Amino acid sequence: MVSWIQPSSVPECLSSSHLEILEWRQYKGTETEIEAAKYILANGSRLKKATFYSESAEKRGMLKELEYVARDSCTFVFE
Protein backbone atom coordinates (compact mmCIF):
# COMPACT_ATOMS: atom_id res chain seq x y z
CA MET A 1 0.00 0.00 0.00
CA VAL A 2 1.36 3.36 -0.97
CA SER A 3 -1.13 5.54 0.88
CA TRP A 4 -4.34 5.16 2.85
CA ILE A 5 -7.37 7.29 2.12
CA GLN A 6 -10.17 6.65 4.56
CA PRO A 7 -13.52 6.08 2.84
CA SER A 8 -16.23 8.67 3.44
CA SER A 9 -18.59 5.90 4.53
CA VAL A 10 -17.98 2.41 5.91
CA PRO A 11 -18.04 -0.15 3.09
CA GLU A 12 -20.78 -2.79 3.31
CA CYS A 13 -18.21 -5.59 3.57
CA LEU A 14 -17.17 -4.15 6.97
CA SER A 15 -20.50 -2.97 8.31
CA SER A 16 -22.52 -6.08 7.53
CA SER A 17 -21.89 -9.75 8.16
CA HIS A 18 -19.32 -10.28 5.39
CA LEU A 19 -15.95 -9.93 7.15
CA GLU A 20 -15.54 -12.31 10.09
CA ILE A 21 -11.86 -13.30 9.84
CA LEU A 22 -8.93 -11.08 8.88
CA GLU A 23 -5.44 -12.44 8.16
CA TRP A 24 -2.85 -9.83 7.27
CA ARG A 25 0.43 -11.39 6.17
CA GLN A 26 3.73 -9.51 5.93
CA TYR A 27 2.42 -6.72 8.15
CA LYS A 28 5.24 -4.20 8.50
CA GLY A 29 3.56 -1.61 10.68
CA THR A 30 4.05 1.32 8.33
CA GLU A 31 1.95 4.41 8.99
CA THR A 32 -0.26 3.53 6.04
CA GLU A 33 -0.77 -0.06 7.25
CA ILE A 34 -1.49 1.09 10.80
CA GLU A 35 -4.20 3.50 9.65
CA ALA A 36 -5.82 0.90 7.38
CA ALA A 37 -5.66 -1.78 10.10
CA LYS A 38 -7.17 0.55 12.71
CA TYR A 39 -10.01 1.40 10.34
CA ILE A 40 -10.77 -2.27 9.65
CA LEU A 41 -10.61 -3.20 13.35
CA ALA A 42 -12.80 -0.27 14.41
CA ASN A 43 -15.42 -0.76 11.69
CA GLY A 44 -15.53 -4.52 11.22
CA SER A 45 -18.82 -5.02 13.03
CA ARG A 46 -18.83 -8.81 12.59
CA LEU A 47 -15.08 -9.35 12.86
CA LYS A 48 -14.45 -12.36 15.10
CA LYS A 49 -10.71 -12.86 14.63
CA ALA A 50 -7.92 -10.64 13.35
CA THR A 51 -4.46 -12.13 12.84
CA PHE A 52 -1.44 -10.07 11.83
CA TYR A 53 1.76 -11.82 10.73
CA SER A 54 4.98 -9.83 10.97
CA GLU A 55 8.70 -10.50 10.92
CA SER A 56 9.49 -7.15 12.51
CA ALA A 57 11.45 -6.95 15.75
CA GLU A 58 8.99 -4.26 16.88
CA LYS A 59 6.07 -6.66 17.28
CA ARG A 60 5.21 -5.59 20.84
CA GLY A 61 4.87 -1.94 19.82
CA MET A 62 2.77 -2.87 16.80
CA LEU A 63 0.54 -5.03 18.97
CA LYS A 64 -0.15 -2.22 21.42
CA GLU A 65 -0.83 0.17 18.56
CA LEU A 66 -3.66 -2.02 17.21
CA GLU A 67 -4.90 -4.00 20.19
CA TYR A 68 -6.79 -1.14 21.80
CA VAL A 69 -8.78 -0.61 18.59
CA ALA A 70 -10.01 -4.22 18.30
CA ARG A 71 -13.53 -4.82 19.57
CA ASP A 72 -14.04 -6.94 22.70
CA SER A 73 -15.85 -9.54 20.61
CA CYS A 74 -12.81 -9.93 18.32
CA THR A 75 -9.92 -12.28 19.06
CA PHE A 76 -6.73 -10.38 18.29
CA VAL A 77 -3.58 -12.34 17.34
CA PHE A 78 -0.16 -10.99 16.41
CA GLU A 79 2.41 -13.50 15.22
What's the short story on this structure?
InterPro entries: FBD. Residues 12-79 form the FBD domain. With 79 residues, this protein is of the alpha/beta class.
Q: What does it look like?
A:
With 79 residues, the protein is α/β, with parallel strands linked by helices. It has one domain. Helix content is 33%, strand content 15%. It has three helices and three strands, in the order αβαβαβ. Strands 1-2-3 form a three-stranded parallel sheet, with helices on one face. Helix 3 links the parallel strand 2 and strand 3. It is globular, with a radius of gyration of 12 Å. The two termini are 20 Å apart.
Topology:
Blueprint: H1 12-15, E1 21-24, H2 31-43, E2 49-52, H3 59-67, E3 75-78
Parallel strand pairs: 1-2, 2-3
